[in-house]
Amino acid sequence: MSEPPWWKTSVVYQIYPRSFCDTNGDGVGDLAGIRRHLDHLEWLGVDAIWLSPFYRSPMADFGYDISDYCDVDPLFGTLADFDALVEDAHDRGIRIIVDWVPNHTSDQHPWFVESRSGRDNPRRDWYLWRDPAPGGGPPNNWVAAFTGGPAWTYDDATGQYYLHSFLPAQPDLNWANPEVVEAMHDVLRFWLDRGVDGFRVDVVHLIGKAPDLPDDPEEYLPIPHSGLNHRPETHELLRGLRRLLDSYPGDRMMVGEVYLLDTTMVATYYGSGDELHLAFNFPPLYTPWDAERWRSQIEIVSRELDPIGAWPTWVLSNHDNKRHRTRYGGSEARARAAAVLLLGLRGTPFLYAGEELGLEDAVVPDDRVVDPGGRDGCRAPIPWEPAPPHGWAGADPWLPWPPEPGTRNVVSEREDPASILHLYRRLLAARRRSPSLREGDLSLIDAPPGVLAWRRAHQSGDERVLIVNFSAERVTMPPSGLSGLVEVASDGSGEGALFTGEVGPDQALLIDPGATAS
Ligand code: NOJ
């Protein structure tokens, strides 16, 4: 049996560097803060870390507007800090995935500064410049994310518009220009040579554009830049990126943010094993806490990905969406059951820092709102210690604390074996022990209404059964001969005992059917 690549069996932990831990007293997290807490991540048992952008940036979109792809913003530290972080993480067996933002730069990037300096500038064509439409106005009807206004900004100096799928401060690169492709490949080489294990590729479905930039159909307009969806040009570019990664030793990986809310379309970005290694699939993230809706998402993922040999990913929270505990109504019991769901499905799970503490979104008063996309709540700082400043360096953090930092922090939860943090740790340990959980097949099994149950099975004979009760009722599983020991219970009850057939409200269980009571 050949070993699967690391990115199939890993649990990836997303860090939003601004919010993780501040060590230098400016109220913003930094690379040294991440390095300081690697011990904790090793204790928790994650296999890889994905770092949201830490590159030089004017921070119009908090780092997703990059002015130098090959340097660390002084706010976060230095390249030496980055190298030290990679080395320490690797020493602990933790891999490093960095964010890479290929669709757009900052308007302060020297490439764009040159590009906008004149129509004859050699870098003019590195971005998408167009004349006004006949009669004036933007060249087409595309809409920008965040502003909801035109995806075009007029530049007085040169009398043309430039395209920006997001803020005006984030001009889109022109990937039809081979010089852009080469320059961006060089960026990847820079980080690959520094030892990174992979890239999380921002809005990668947007990089290829139809050369004539046609109008979006009217029905697409409410979803910004959806008319750019699904361009054949993108697939060719992805194959080029894949060849580059594959030319390096050590299974370097890219996971693409394919922000298309349709799993059938997402599946095409795996190509035939020659495009993305992994693609985020967001429909489950937007699925409410409902057994039937989740069953359908699991079926869709199997139907679309299994036949093409594509490996799924699962995400419940990230830096762009309300945390799932908040979305599911705030109950910790549900957040715990959701952890069993996320870590029991077939595919690579992505955790978002703080979900293992059961954090909810912060309440952000109007005068502290900073994000143009309204995403501040889920980006609240991580509390490490019970007493203020909660393990941060002292200055007020850039965003308010999430609720209950005095108890919902790493130190307090580590001391309490009944905490949600310990539940995550037990689940991660269970995955490491079980080949069926890491890489086995998944088949849904009979369960009462409001309950989802499935079996994971590995060719070695290893098996696990997972049961998630989405309902507020205690339920009894059908008498199917299902037996075994409860390996992990979302509320901690009955672990190590025989499964009774009963599942409590908002409870989830991981059962080892092969185990017998000693
Ligand atoms: C997706 C990122 O996750 C989000 O945070 C960012 O604002 C946009 N892409 C634009 O880069």
Brief summary:
This protein is an alpha/beta fold and 518 residues long. The chain contains 15 helices and 20 strands.
Structure description:
With 518 residues, this protein is of the alpha/beta class. It folds into three domains: 350 residues, Glycosidases (TIM Barrel, Alpha-Beta Barrel); 54 residues, Oligo-1,6-glucosidase, domain 2, CATH 3.90.400; 73 residues, Golgi alpha-mannosidase II (Immunoglobulin-like, Sandwich). It contains 15 helices and 20 strands. It has an eight-stranded parallel β-sheet. Helix 7 packs parallel to helix 8 and helix 12 packs parallel to helix 14. The two termini are 31 Å apart. The model has no long low-confidence stretch (mean pLDDT 96). The structure holds 1-deoxynojirimycin. The site of 1-deoxynojirimycin (NOJ) has 10 residues, from loops.
Count of folded domains: 3
Largest sheet: 8 strands, parallel
Radius of gyration: 23 Å
The mean pLDDT is 96
In CATH, what is the class of the largest domain? Alpha Beta
- What portion of residues is helical? 25-40%
End-to-end distance? 31 Å
Strand content: 15-25%
Uncertain runs are none
Strand order of the largest sheet: 11-10-9-5-2-1-13-12
Going by CATH, the architecture of the largest domain would be Alpha-Beta Barrel
Ligand inventory: 1-deoxynojirimycin
Counted beta strands: 20
Globular, elongated, flat, extended or rod-shaped: what is the shape?
globular
The SS-based structural class is: alpha/beta
What is the CATH topology assignment of the largest domain? TIM Barrel
> How many helices in DSSP terms?
15
* CATH homologous superfamily designation of the largest domain: Glycosidases
